[in-house]
Every structure is written in C-alpha cells, then in structure tokens.
Write a structure and sequence with these properties.
mainly beta; 775 residues; eight-stranded antiparallel sheet; 24-stranded antiparallel beta barrel
C-alpha cells in the first residue's frame, strides 16, 4: 500500500563521505599502458599481423561501387586494448580540407575517418571513434541500431600524419574504456564499420558498404575474429571536481565539490558512481522560444549519465525515450529553483553468462524533506544470434506531489534475414497519486484529499525494416498509446492517446558517368493518426529529394501535405481544435568551399494558423581564416501572417508576427587540448493580434471580439568558454555566461529595437571556474 503522504519519515539513502570511502577501498590495480603509442608512423612490427576490413564501397552517394581512392582499415588486438589504423590515399590534386573542430562537434568539418565497433557483435551497443584530418575528434555511443549519442566521452588516443600521397590515422582504445561481455574463448567476434569522408567531393567510402541511417545499421557491421586477452584484476578511476561560481547578479559566490567514480571490478562488471555531481554549467543548452504544448528535449553531458548508459537507452516511435536523464537534477517539483542538486547516484552494469544486466539509482539532495526525488531503473537483456529479448523497469518517487511512477517494458528485436528487421515493445505504466478533489476545506481553502488514485496505461509498437541496406528500402511502424499511459516522470514522450501508422520508402540513385549529379536520395514519408477517443488527428504525406552534384554543391527539396483533423494538444486539455488541410514546402542549398568560405541558404513556407501562410529564410555563412579558427553566423528571419496561440481555456489568438533568430559561433583551437568557444544566441519576436477565436462544442474555431494584447519576446544566451585538457579525463574550464528572457505585452519596440536592447537582458550573469582531475 502506498504512503498517504501525510506522515513521512526522514530518508537519505546515500552519504557522500561513506560512499567515497567504500568505493575508494575497492581499488586494487591501475590501468595498463599501451604497447603501441599512436604516432601515425605504423612502424611497430605488430602491424604486420593486423586484420583488414576487406570490402570498401562508396555509400555517399549510395552507389556501392568502388571508391575513387584506396582506403585501408587495420585492426590489431593487443593485451592492453584495440589498435586501429586508417591508411587513406589522397593525391596532391585532391584538395585536403582540415580545419580544427571542437571535441564532439556534430559535424567534423573537413576530411575525416570514423571507426565504429560493436565489441559484442550483438547489434545492441556500438562505440564511435572519429578523427578529422585537422585533428578534431568525436566519440559517442550507437544504440537502437542507428541512434547516435555524442555525449559519451571515452579515454582513447589518436595521431594523424600526412604524406604527399596519403594521410594516416592511428588509434588506440584501451579495453578499460569500453564495456564488453565476458568470454573464456581465445577469440572474440566483434562488429566493425569503418568510413572515410572526402569532404571536397561530399563522398563517403565505407567498409562494409552500408548506410548509417539503415534500419539495422549496427546489426550489419562486418564481423571479425580478434584475439581475446585476459584482463586480470580490477581498476578504480576517481575523478573529483571543484567548481567556483561567481554570481554577479546576486553578488555572491558558491563552491561546489564532488566526484565521479568508475570501478571495473572485472571484465564482466562495472560500478559507476557520482557524488554531488555538477549539473553541467560548462555546456549551455541551445536557445529555444517555443509556445507549443510539446516539451523540448535537451542532451546530457554529465559523465555519470553518459558512461555505460547504452544498455538503458531504449527509444520508441514518436520520439519517445524510456529514460531521459535530464529529468534527474531538473527543476524541483515545487519550482523553487531552476535545477536540483543530486546527493549521489550509483550504476551497475555487466553480464552473467549470456544475460546482460544494468541498474542505477539516483537521489536528489532534498528527498529526505520531500522536495527532492528518487529515480531508479533496472535492465535485463538476452542477446541471441540474430535477436534480442529484453526487460526494463523504472521507478520514480516524487514526494512533493505525492506521486510515484513504475514503468515495465518488454522489448524484442530480430534480423531473420539480410533483408528484414523486426522490432517490438510493450510498456505498462503504473502511476500512484494522492487524490485531489474538487471540494475545498471551508477554513483553509485547500483541496481535500479524497483517497489515493492509481492508474495504469499501455503503449505497444511494432517496426519492420524491409530491404534495409538496398538502394530501395522501406520501413513500417505501428504505434498504440492509450490515454492513461505516462512515462514522463523519468522518460520522455510527446503525448499519449495515440494510434499511429507510419510508412517510409527511400530510393537512392547514383549518378552515371558524365552526369552533373553525383547521387540522389528520394524519400516518401507518410503517417496516419487518431487519438484513443476516435478523433482523427492531422496526418501527413511528405516527399523529398536530396541531390549531391559532382561540383560539390548539395540541394534538398521537400513538399508536404497535412490533412485536416483535430489538434487535441494545443488547448492543454480544454478540448480539441479542428484545423483544415494545409501545404508546406522547404529547400536548402549548401555550397562547396569558396576559398575560406562556405554558405548555406534555406527557406520554408508553411501554415501554422487557421488559413494564411508563414515562412522563414535561413542564411548561414562559415569562415575558416586559418585551420585553427572557425567563425559561423546563422541568421533566420521569419514572417508569420497567421500564428495560432492558445491563451487559456478555449480562447485562442491569431497573430501577425516577425521573428529573428541570431546565432554566432567562434571556435579557436590554438593547440591540442586547448579550446576557446564563443556562443552568442538571440531570439526576438514581435507579435500583433490578427483576430481572436474561441472553440465551440465541436472544436470549430469561431471568431470573437476578445481583446488580446500584442506582445514581444526577447531571449538572449551568451557563453564564452575556455577548455584545457591537461591529462586524460582531466580538464580546466573557465566560463562566462550571461542570459535573459523577456515577455512583454503592449511593447512598442520593433525587432530592431529588441535586438539593440538585448544587452539589457540579465536574468543570469556569472563566471565559473571548474577543474576535474582523474586520480
């Protein structure tokens, strides 16, 4: 039986000093050192015994023909780790593009290589290690076959060396960096994918010749047998940190200390812990102004929530995540602060025989006083030869709301043939809350508790990927979510009460000899929707083509048709709104490099209101004055003739609005380990009332004479960050950040005035010094 919430005992599951002492006492041995030191020379005798990825194909465009130039990937299993080397042919007539890029940039600008490894060859979790010719690196995890998460930062080393005819990248990945299932065999089967990107021609060559957006990308990696090495003993990594924040707005300073700990008890078991973790002020989120009813998703850079997290990463159609780690440490339920401190969190991952397991628990600092929350999850997975069966459970306790949530999920995936992949999942949510009645206490005027309410709901989905690696491929998804299902306490979902069928077809065509285009991808995407009450939601048909030309230009075009139907989210529970059918069109053009410059121009014409059109134009200019310095300016003006916004209950306003998105980035990387980044974002909106509407009983919008005020929005975010990596997993950050948000009714300023006054925005103004050092 659940607690009533009227009487609660003090609770504190974790003690910072005790946990630190316990985990530190488990230390038995340090990490080993590599027998091969990456220098790009490949002069060690071991390389003569290396395995090679045998069959390289051109995959961008998806021609699957022979590469323009020779590429080699060599792999060598050593007692200390996995060594890899790329030998890339690129004669002097082919210009080499090699600006330096910050770590984990979404796009490595310039020529680059990528090594992706599935160390268990099960198609469940892959690791990415990418290196640019200019020295930029990117790493991350691959889950759900083709979902890339670049928040994971592993310890690995690399070197780049150039000759007149070639360039070589040498990598070394210690076994202690990655998680692998245990094995007593002398040999180990791994899945391998290697690729080389020729930036000047916008071509990618890969071994094997598969595409990263394939429905079974991970499962189709090339299988290799490598030597299995015994890694005896255990290792403990302790990474304490200290952060000093000077808040200029409130004229105070704050010191915060904590630690991340990783104990590898054996090759088959990892324990990770974080004590008083930093929420990640050194990584600013992208600026957003969004009046929709759907929550915006942000990534997570905190080491604990990226290390060995792949086993918990389960996604669903319609952008769902069963575990969305940004819930942990988010704003408290009483909304008294912008974020919550975390006392501690523990995570256990490993395998027992064929069974893979994982568990974690995290407690926020004021859980004992009912203001914080408790989060927990457990995962079991049984990988088979061409399939996987899994179970995931999550639990969240939110005492301030007298609410707890239990999620149970069963998942299944199989690739019975090279042409077909099937995946399915069934999820149940159980939510317990103290009932809040409509009657009020006559003295205190507070809601009376009428007893506890327990609700449960279900979600189920099925996906089929057909001809997944062929030039013509298809995907079918069927999704059902009932109106009581809710996994937003620890997970993320856009909505419940949904029945949806999706179909996608992709046709990839390679250019012929003498043709002006290099390749083209044609896509048909459509979905049909209705809610659990049988109301037909707006559905969509979308056609697009992405063309790559032989002169390195790229052009993308898209048209879409949205059917009539109801929007049952926009009113926030005050009834559906009927909307007519509508059209939209989008394009963008990306130029090749003109000397030190590159440009992108895009435009979008769409309907976001009752009848009229809106549109925006995007202009991006990137300047590379030196290989160490990159500047990028992105300006997007938008004009809305009919912008429908909810005002409360069944009242809506249609606005004529002008909006400007301004985004300036500067990245200076003067030497390895040093990064200086400036990110300056501003969004301004000027909106004037066009007319007011109310919905009738059937959801139709009826024009009214309600008086609604015009409004302006100004949102600013500026961050200047210096990062110095002075040792593996050890960094110094110096960060200045300032930002502010204003929503003002009856404001007489236009967009130009808002832009000129952005310096007056000051909701946050702070300087931060953070140091973390792995002992």
């Amino acid at each position: 039986m659940r607690r009533s919430g009227l009487s609660r005992r003090p609770r504190r599951l974790f003690s910072f000093p005790a946990a630190l002492c316990i985990l530190t006492g488990l230390y038995t041995s340090g990490p080993a050192f590599a027998a091969i030191t990456p220098d790009g020379a490949l002069d060690e005798p071991q390389w003569r015994e290396a395995l090679r990825c045998p069959d390289w194909r051109r995959t961008t465009p998806f021609a699957r023909d022979q590469p323009r130039y020779s590429n080699e990937l060599l792999l060598l299993s050593l007692p200390e780790g996995l060594a890899a080397a790329f030998v890339i042919d690129q004669p002097p007539v082919e210009r080499r593009i090699k600006p330096r890029t910050p770590r984990d940039s979404e796009a490595l600008i310039g020529d680059s290589v990528s090594l992706m490894i599935d160390f268990d060859a099960t198609g469940q979790i892959g690791y990415e290690f990418s290196v640019g010719l200019g020295g930029g690196v990117r790493d991350g995890l691959i889950t759900n076959q083709n979902t890339f998460d670049r928040d994971w930062d592993g310890e690995w080393s690399h070197a780049v060396r150039e000759t007149d005819q070639q360039w070589i990248v040498e990598l070394f990945v210690p076994w202690s960096t990655v998680s692998m299932r245990g094995s007593r065999s002398d040999m180990r089967t791994i899945g391998v994918y290697g690729s080389r990107y020729l930036y000047e021609r916008n071509e990618r060559y890969a071994c094997p010749g598969i595409s990263t957006d394939s429905g079974a990308f991970l499962s189709d990696f090339h299988r290799m047998q490598i030597a299995q090495h015994e890694t005896n003993g255990s290792s403990l990594e302790v990474t304490p940190y200290a952060t000093v924040i000077r808040d200029f707005l409130h004229d105070d300073s704050q010191l915060k200390v904590g630690a991340d700990l990783v104990w590898k008890a054996s090759p088959r078991m990892w324990l990770t812990a974080t004590l008083n973790p930093d929420f990640g002020q050194v990584e600013s989120d992208e600026l957003v102004v969004d009046f929709s009813a759907i929550e915006t998703v942000f990534t997570d850079k905190r080491p604990f929530f990226t290390e060995n997290q792949g086993v918990f990463d389960l996604r669903t159609p319609a952008s769902g995540q069963l575990i969305y780690t940004r819930r942990i440490g988010a704003a408290p339920d009483d909304l008294s602060a912008g974020s919550s401190d975390i006392d501690a969190a523990f995570k256990l991952t490993g395998d027992a025989g064929s069974l893979v397991y994982g568990a974690f628990i995290a407690q926020e600092s004021e859980y004992a006083s009912d203001r914080g929350r408790l989060f927990a999850a457990g995962r079991l997975a049984l990988p088979l030869e061409r399939a996987r069966i899994g179970y995931l459970a999550t639990y969240t306790d939110r005492p301030f709301l007298d609410r707890d949530a239990l999620i149970n999920a069963l998942d299944f995936e199989t690739t019975p043939s090279d042409a077909l992949r099937l995946a399915a999942q069934v999820i149940r949510s159980d939510i317990g809350t103290a009932g809040m009645g409509v009657r009020f206490d006559s003295v205190a005027l507070t809601p009376l508790r009428l007893g506890e309410i327990d609700t449960h709901g279900y979600q189920a989905w099925l996906e089929a990927d057909i001809n997944r690696s062929a030039p013509v491929s298809h995907a079918l998804k069927a999704l059902y979510i009932d109106r009581r299902f809710d996994m937003n306490d620890l997970g993320y979902m856009e909505r419940n009460s949904l029945e949806q069928i999706e179909w996608e077809s992709n046709r990839r065509v390679a250019g012929e000899g003498g043709s002006s285009f290099n390749g083209e991808t044609q896509r048909l995407y459509t979905y049909w929707r209705r809610n659990s009450q049988g109301q037909r939601l707006q559905s969509r048909v979308q056609l697009s083509r992405d063309v790559q030309y032989t002169n390195a230009w790229r052009a993308y075009q898209e048209i879409r048709y949205v059917t009539s139907g109801v929007d049952d989210l926009i009113s926030r529970g005050n009834g559906p709104v009927e909307l007519d059918s509508r059209f939209g069109a989008y394009f963008d053009v990306v130029t090749p490099r003109f000397g030190d410059w590159q440009f992108t121009v895009g435009g979008y014409l769409f309907q976001q209101g009752v009848e009229d059109y809106s549109g925006w134009l995007q202009m991006v200019a990137s300047w590379y004055p030196t290989e160490k310095l990159t500047l990028r300016l992105d300006v997007t003006p938008q004009l809305s003739n009919d912008w429908l916004l909810w005002q409360g209950q069944n009242l809506f306003g249609s606005y004529r609005a002008e909006r400007l998105d301004f985004d300036f980035r500067l990245d200076w990387i003067p030497a390895a380990g040093h990064e200086l980044r400036l990110k300056w974002q501003w969004i301004g909106v000027e909106a004037d009332l066009r007319r007011a509407y109310r919905t009738d009983a059937g959801g139709r919008l009826i024009q009214t004479t309600d008086a609604l005020a015009p409004f302006n929005v100004s949102n600013l975010g500026v961050q200047l960050r210096y990062r110095y990596q002075f040792a593996p997993q050890s960094e110094l950050f110096l960060v200045y950040a300032r930002g502010g948000y204003q929503f003002i009714e009856q404001d007489q300023r236009d967009l130009g005035g808002l832009f000129g006054d952005m310096g007056d925005l000051r909701d946050a103004d702070q300087f931060l010094v953070k140091i973390r050092y792995r002992l």
